[in-house]
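Why predict the complex rather than its parts? Because the way molecules touch one another can change local conformation, and only a joint prediction can capture that. The input here totals 477 residues.
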Amino acid sequence: MTGYWGGVVWGLGAGVLVGISTILGVWGERKVAGHIQKRYGPNTAPVFGIFQLVYDLLKLLTKEDIHPKQARRGLFNIAPLFMTTPIISSLVIIPFAAGWAPLDTSIGILFFLAVPSISVLGVLFAGWSQRNTYASLGGLRGAAQMISYEVPRSLSVLAVVMLAGTMQPVTLMGEWRIWWLPVTLIAFVVYFIASIAELNRGPFDLAECDSELVGGYFTDYSGIRWAMFMMSEYGGMTAAALFGSVVFLGGTWPLSGVLGVLVLLVKTVLLVIAFMWAKWTFPRMRPDQLMATSWKVLTPMALVQIVIVGVVIAWL
Amino acid sequence: MSTVLFYLLAAVAITGAIVVISTRDVMRLVLGLGAFLLSVAGYYLFYGATFLAIAEIFIYVGGVLVLVVVAIMTVHRSVESEPVLSNRNTFGAAVVALALFGLLVFGLSGVVAPGTASVAGAGIPAVGDMLLGALLPHFEIVGGLLLAGLVAVLAITGGER
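Output of the joint prediction:
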């Protein structure tokens, strides 16, 4: 289904997907963190604590929406939208089944890399509009980090695009072969690390680290607007995992049809758990280490990967 | 429906542009500029030039606009003092702006209209063929020019250190 109303329908669908992935993600993260730290995580609520997310949601929806006195009201109110909307719209190019994506376009890969970069603006607007030091510092740190890590992330995806010879996610997933996985392994590692940094998650959570910046760029947010920042984080994590499993892990390979969709979901969930695993096992980096990792380690790695793929293509 | 979309985009773009030139509040200016740039990207999509639309979002919204906001956050210190918007050259500027507007209307009126269908050859393969084929010298020259600009900025601002 295409056209204007199709766009509206897919937009709403992706919004629901982001919402579901947020509440499941918050619950999952607490469980994963609990098991890593030798405790149980939420377990008093019914069904392995899964009802915890219902409680959390009710609490967030009914919480007072506080506006700090010194904040710039208009910008303060719309900044969370700048975070969530790009994530939701980037989901539209993901091929959820073999040979089908909501928006099947020849520049899908570029679309996925470009549109979430709007959320850098959301980080900056949020940091600026609260008019306090923690938030400003968090906003600037977040923006610097997200812009730097966009470079290795885009370069790593380029390796697979070169192998497939297309930027259309649906065609790319159809072209994917199992021997691509060892060939593009470096790119996958770079993509994984750069995605964590793009999302401002640990060990790259300098922009929102609670022990030094309270909450970083969302220090003064509460209630539903705070929930929208969480939506952008967990939705972004799901989107990055979906995109990573489509581009690097073959998406629905080796099955097709409904089973293929299940395979894609399993790969995505495993990647999301790996993201959480990284957050809860590695210590936070220093700002200079963070920048050095992006420019001196990940970018050269991605460039080496592109050379390798170039040699492989010539040798084929 | 597409006509409605065309005029909606036009309304957003013009509102954004008016906000940019009339407001004294820098952050509102950034928002207006963002609305304008996004609606320009919307126009590219409208005419089927998807690659241009994504490039616009990547470079202008995700790059230039972010740079502007970072500059404002690190430089703009006082909230109370608002910048002066006009100077003595208002009349000359108005003449130049009107002349440019007339030139654009005159030059583009036949090319772009609400009903026009998609522009042919605007996809990625066509753009790539053009840039790395017939237009390769121009592409290289523009790249060299940008590099020279970067080096010049370094030389002017902090070259001695």
